[in-house]
Amino acid sequence: MRVIAGKYRSRKLTAPAGMAIRPTSDRLRETLFDVVAAGVDGSTWIDLFAGTGAIGIEALSRGATMVHFVESSLRAVHAIRRNLSELGIQSGYQILERDAAVALRVLGQRGVVCDFCFLDPPYRRRDNYEKILTLLAASPLLKVGAQVIAEHEKHFDPGEDFGALHRDRKLRQGDAVLSFYRLSSQRNVTTEDTEEHREMC
Asked: pTM here?
């Protein structure tokens, strides 16, 4: 696992042995950041179920101003801190060792607003998708034009609509899928793309 691009390009990221963490693959991270590239510089991120912190660290590497890492596992939090330390990242981030739903309420109370929110719950906890996406739809955390990106397995669809939050794009790569959501006022025509389709184009 490595940082794909930016200031920390090609630097390795680690996860403690034996942890039940499923890091977003390098290829899927590359696909994600290809899609959002134009908006990353100067942006604020919320990285929910952050695991090793790979998504948030990739954002910082590419010029994000602030990343809020949210992770409930103490061992995973130690992994995030280690990766940040080994890269020499000393500012531009906050780590919340809390349940994702609780962390969203805390961030909202603190007046945090984000440009991007990424969530990758454990695949066995499918109920987390509906819970978190519904909370985000009703929260003050999303800036105008903000994107919420959910990673999920290809055999599970978290859904199109969660209150004011609507899916406007879906990208599949291998066994994983990225679903992109925006508030209804910024909804675009729904598109579905696949790795195979992009290669054909």
From this structure: 0.88
pLDDT tens column, 136-173: 999 999 999 999 999 999 999 999 999 999 999 999 98
Give the domain ranges of the chain: 26-200
Instruction: Compute CA distances 178 → 13, 77, 87, 114, 185, whole Å.
Output: 22, 24, 27, 19, 21
Tally of CA atoms within 13 A in the half-sphere of 85 that contains its CB:
8
CATH class, domain 26-200, is alpha beta
Model pLDDT for residues 11-53, shown as the tens digit of each residue? 999 886 655 556 678 889 999 999 999 999 999 999 999 999 9
For the CA atoms of 3, 118, 197, 27, what is the dihedral angle to 10 degrees?
Answer: 20
